[in-house]
């Protein structure tokens, strides 16, 4: 179990690195960052629930991403101040966009498919 968590944690931090890098390189479209954000959330959930069904992980990840995106519609003074911090900007975002919902959906779907494919391949290889 510990080995799986370490594996997922390494992937998690690598995705964070790629996400930050995607914001620094001007020719990379902005939606790539949102796509990677969703993949990062998927592996964050995976760290805490390493043996749960991949479909459940994908569903939980989608709910978290959608929840954070819809939370951007809430515009109270305290949360606006929080969004102006580095943490708030990266975690909570700035404003609601339907394109972010699409990017999150494709990011989670990609992480789900890749994990299913690699786990099936590794299971087949070990038999």
TrEMBL record:
InterPro entries: DUF2809
Name of the protein in question: DUF2809 domain-containing protein
Keyword Transmembrane helix assigned: yes
Residues spanning the membrane: 6-21, 28-49, 55-74, 95-114
UniProt keywords, alphabetically: Membrane, Transmembrane, Transmembrane helix
Pfam family, one: DUF2809
UniProt KW NAD keyword: no
């Amino acid at each position: 179990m510990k080995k799986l968590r370490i594996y997922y944690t390494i992937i998690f931090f690598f995705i964070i690195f790629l996400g930050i890098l995607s914001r620094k390189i001007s020719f990379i479209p902005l939606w790539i960052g949102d796509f990677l954000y969703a993949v990062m959330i998927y592996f964050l959930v995976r760290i805490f629930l390493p043996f749960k069904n991949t479909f459940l992980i994908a569903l939980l990840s989608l709910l978290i991403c959608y929840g954070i995106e819809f939370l951007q519609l809430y515009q109270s003074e305290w949360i606006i101040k929080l969004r102006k911090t580095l943490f708030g900007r990266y975690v909570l975002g700035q404003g609601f966009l339907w394109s972010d919902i699409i990017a999150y959906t494709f990011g989670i779907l990609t992480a789900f498919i890749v994990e299913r494919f690699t786990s099936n391949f590794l299971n087949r290889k070990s038999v």
